[in-house]
Amino acid sequence: MLFGKLFGKGSKKNDKSKDDSLAKKEEKITIKTPFTTFYYINNPPHEIGYEAELEWYERPQEGPERFRYNPVGCYIDCDTPDTTEASLCLERLTRLFEDRKWTDGKVKLDVAEKLKGEDGLIKDYNGNPVSKDELMDNLKIRFITVYRDGSIAYSLDHHCTLDTESDVHIVYAVNGDISIKSDSEFYGFN
């Protein structure tokens, strides 16, 4: 027994209990759907829900684009903080995913409309005017958040305009309001 402790060998009984506790830690609560698997996270108070990666855009099969492709991250709230059930948000996300081409275009159009200046122009990082179509072509959704209150937020790669210093986040509130936020506004840090 003494040599076992010195050389890292314990009794078989201790090894089995360690294996059991590791297995319990590795068990994850998941929701499997036809389009992805969601993994439960419990980071109160803001994140009690599920995360997943979505094949929102068609994955390139050839060329250098296939190495730059990233799936879209996703978070859905649980129905209440006291449960692991997430059927309400999952249903909303499923509808968005099933109609993702329309959703993608609508989100990009709304971002372009919100970023227009008083003169109706959108400016790139050099201060040059950019058309709505050019801006929309350069935007890509990178994360989707579906909240239990019914609001939905999209985070988009945003490297082409002067108006924000970061990615752009568009939030669709339950009451119909649409707002654009920078990283610091969206995540609440300075």
Question: Could you explain how this protein is built, in words?
Answer:
With 190 residues, the protein is an alpha+beta fold. The protein has one domain (30-187). The chain has seven helices and ten strands. The strands form two sheets. It has an eight-stranded mixed sheet. Strands 5-6 form a two-stranded antiparallel sheet. Helix 5 (100-115) packs across helix 6 (132-138). The longest helix has 16 residues, at 100-115. The chain starts with a helix and ends with a helix.
Quick rundown:
With 190 residues, the chain is an alpha+beta fold. The chain contains 7 helices and 10 strands.
Q: Helices and strands: which structural class?
A: alpha+beta
What's the Cα radius of gyration? 22 Å
Range of strand content: 25-35%
Written as H for each helix and E for each strand, in order along the chain, the element string is HHEEEHEHHEEHEEEEH
* Distinct helical segment count: 7
Q: Tell me about the largest β-sheet.
A: 8 strands, mixed
What's the overall average pLDDT, rounded?
Answer: 84
The rounded distance between the terminal residues' Cα atoms is 56 Å
**Number of β-strand runs:** 10
Widest β-sheet, arrangement of strands: 1-2-3-4-7-8-9-10
The tally of domains stands at 1
What overall geometry do the principal axes of the alpha carbons give?
A: globular
Overall helicity = 25-40%
Low-confidence stretches: none
